[in-house]
Specification:
Main location: nucleus
Shape: elongated
Subcellular location: Nucleus
Oligomer: single chain
Number of helices: 6
Protein name: KNOX1 domain-containing protein
Distance between the termini: 87 Å
Pfam families: KNOX1, KNOX2
Keywords: Nucleus
Helix content: 55-70%
Mean pLDDT: 74
Largest sheet: 2 strands, antiparallel
Number of domains: 2
Order of helices and strands: HEEHHHHH
Number of strands: 2
Length: about 160
């Protein structure tokens, strides 16, 4: 986490929080300084590990196994990183609300991303089971054709008897 503070020499930590006064210069901070300040504030927020984890979970959806394992490793490092969660909740209520909202959005986004993959996996499993059943001789091809051909089965009228 301390690497983030070395990005800009004007950003310093005061009591676990980033000091805005350390970035302000004559006439106000430059836009790039504000961006760096915001990045540092987000990275030092106690909910940053949750935000990072939610983001990584989104990236893992549909990723190849090698990439997913690499992302999982990054996630573990992010949770165990030094200084994670050093600031306190309540110091900046606006940032607290932003972090909560963004985490919720990422969780919902991951659910929406996962839905088509889950449906496709279910469909493929069903097709695989049907093919395995056909190949193993579990049902006759004629019976399968008759049920899917759209023809109606003859009905017996029992009212006459």
């Amino acid at each position: 986490m301390e690497d983030l503070y070395s990005i800009h020499p004007g950003i310093s930590r005061v009591g676990g929080a980033v000091s805005e006064a350390s970035v302000a210069g004559v006439g106000g901070p430059a836009p790039s300084d504000l961006t760096e300040l915001m990045k540092a504030q987000i990275a030092s927020h106690p909910r940053y590990p949750s935000l990072l984890s939610a983001y990584i979970e989104c990236r893992k959806v549909g990723a190849p196994p090698q990439v997913a394992s690499l992302l999982e490793e990054v996630s573990r490092e992010g949770r165990a990183g030094p200084g994670s969660g050093a600031a306190e909740i309540g110091v900046d209520p606006e940032l607290d609300e932003f972090m909560d909202a963004y985490c919720r959005v990422l969780v919902r986004y991951k659910e929406e991303l996962s839905r088509p993959f889950d449906e496709a996996a279910s469909f493929l499993s069903s097709i695989q089971a049907q093919l395995s059943n056909l190949c193993s001789g579990g049902s006759s091809p004629a019976a399968t054709t008759a049920t899917h051909s759209g023809e109606e089965t003859p009905r017996i009228d029992r009212s006459v008897a």
